[in-house]
């Protein structure tokens, strides 16, 4: 694990020394938008028109942020329009790699060995972390975006005139409410589990873990009244929550010490998780052995033996009993 400084790879773990043991996630750096007509989006520059076979997505099957983009690619029928590569589950001294292994799909564009080479292809002086997902433009040879929250919004609508499925996970009438829900779930749950797991002081961990479970308790109550977060329709907020919930019992309970409860202990959240998992196409996007191999195998400071636990035995395929 490391980062690029002026285009050169440096091997360092997250710096929590300057933040009192707290893990702070840095903002993404490539923030352009693919749009229907190529005009600029709400950040970055224009020139990225939605076209078939122009864009390539780099993901890890372990990463909850990348998983959002894999789900959207699948549900929006973009697998016909946007090609995809998958990095190796193990993230070591060179960061994400394309070393042959379970689930790996090599890089057909650059034949890259390491994901950091994709960043330096886009910007030879890039400074920052090398994260997935990465949306690459084959036409102008650069990174469009490495921010999953924005990539899924592009995928939701930009390709609708060039063959995407018309399903809409961000209906205008719910836009504000979805933003508010995301703003609540991101720090407390999506990133909350990382804040607990990567904390290097008891105090930082204590705060983070309490926030995770306060938020889960709150959503458990909400889901007693609603099938999905916004009501009867699946929206963006659900897919963003899903990618954390589906990893929770297998990884975050043990590896990140979020162990006050498991998702299976929450009646509504557990049913809701299975309901989403059983939506057509979704199970294909979830690879629990790869996910476990990544977290337990890569985070040496948390799990120095790199031993991958056998359990838990999870079955996402039983009837959700939600409706
Ligand atoms: N804000 C980014 C975060 C992506 C992210 O942090 N990805 C992690 C994997 S889960 C990563 O690639 N980390 C490598 C690193 O930080 O060096 C997004 O949502 O797209």
Automatic annotation (TrEMBL):
Residue span(s) of domain GST C-terminal: 160-305
InterPro entries: Glutathione-S-Trfase_C-like, Glutathione-S-Trfase_C_sf, Glutathione_S-Trfase, Glutathione_S-Trfase_N, GST_Omega-like_C, GST_Omega/GSH, Thioredoxin-like_sf
Site entry (Lowers pKa of active site Cys), positions: 252, 295
Gene3D superfamilies: 1.20.1050.10, Glutaredoxin
Catalytic residues identified in the record: 63, 194
Chain coiled-coil ranges: none
Residues the entry annotates as binding glutathione: 96, 129-132, 147-148
GO-annotated molecular function: glutathione transferase activity
Protein name: Glutathione S-transferase family protein
